[in-house]
Amino acid sequence: FFYTRSIWCVGDKCVHIKRAKAANRIGDYLSELEAYVYYINIASKYRQFDKVSDYLCRVREIIEANNVRERNPDAYFRYQHTLGLYYYHGDDYNNALSIWENLLSEPIITDNIHDIDAATRWYTKCLIKQVDSNANMDSDIIGRITNLLTVAKEHNFERAIIDYTLLLVRINAQQNLHEEAKQLLKNNEIIGLIEKTNDSLYKAKYYLWCAYYSSEEEKLNNIETAKALVDSNVLKNILQKDLSILGEAFGGIFE
């Protein structure tokens, strides 16, 4: 009931806030914590930060007063993940990255695969944002992402595997490591996962990078395949960093 009725709702009338206040009145600290954490999760994604700081203060009070990290590690994991979302959607990528890196370091305090997968996917998005905004990437960026790719494979997080692989393709291309980029694109595992997820954006990005490393005839076929999958304006907006790196090879094709 709480999940479906108010997933799109933010504000004081949100059922999660009502749930939190009701839980507070009966002394159910865990339900109060979960309700506030879920509300902050939603509000952060909508960038509706009004009063979120007040609720965060209350959440911290609950956590400190009840030793939640030790007594309820799953709840603590979800709180930390939500704090990462709060910073991420506030464009504070450094703090968000720090939280997710600590949260996903071994040993991970939860065995809830859904929660670990969610944190991994958002950490990936944040890492991509930081790479996009930083022209002078640190020298070990490929090593860091390769390590994350290994962890994603261990947990079989399929979308994280695709995200990390395609990000590595782009960074290798930026650093003129073209053979490495081509080998990533030829990997049967990534090809199979992209087909399995059947995500049009993943497919389009994959075909565009294949086009970059293809012969002239294959390039045109791959470009047309990408354009058939996703509207050109969507491609330009969502894949603008990839397209800017591809440069003259794709000049004017989305005009």
List the helices and strands and how they pair.
Blueprint: H1 2-5, H2 15-25, H3 29-45, H4 52-66, H5 68-71, H6 73-89, H7 93-103, H8 113-133, H9 141-155, H10 158-174, H11 178-186, H12 188-197, H13 200-212, H14 216-229, H15 232-238, H16 240-246
Helix pairs in contact: 2-3, 3-4, 3-6, 6-7, 6-8, 7-8, 8-10, 9-10, 10-11, 10-12, 10-13, 13-14
Question: Largest beta sheet, briefly?
Answer: none
Structural class: mainly alpha
Mean pLDDT: 84
Instruction: Report strand %.
Output: under 5%
What order do the SSEs take from the amino end to the carboxyl end, as H and E? HHHHHHHHHHHHHHHH
Please state the oligomeric state of the protein chains shown.
single chain
Please state the overall shape, judged from the principal axes of the Cα atoms: elongated
Low-confidence stretches: none
β-strand number? 0
| Helix proportion range | over 70%
* Total helical segments: 16
Kindly, what is the distance between the CA atoms of the first and last residues, rounded to a whole number of angstroms?
A: 46 Å
Radius of gyration: 21 Å
How does this model look, in words?
There is one protein chain. This protein is an all-alpha fold and 255 residues long. It has 16 helices and no strands. The chain has helices spanning 2-5, 15-25, 29-45, 52-66, 68-71, 73-89, 93-103, 113-133, 141-155, 158-174, 178-186, 188-197, 200-212, 216-229, 232-238, 240-246. α3 packs antiparallel against α4 and α6 packs parallel to α8 (113-133). The chain starts with a helix and ends in a 9-residue tail after the last helix.
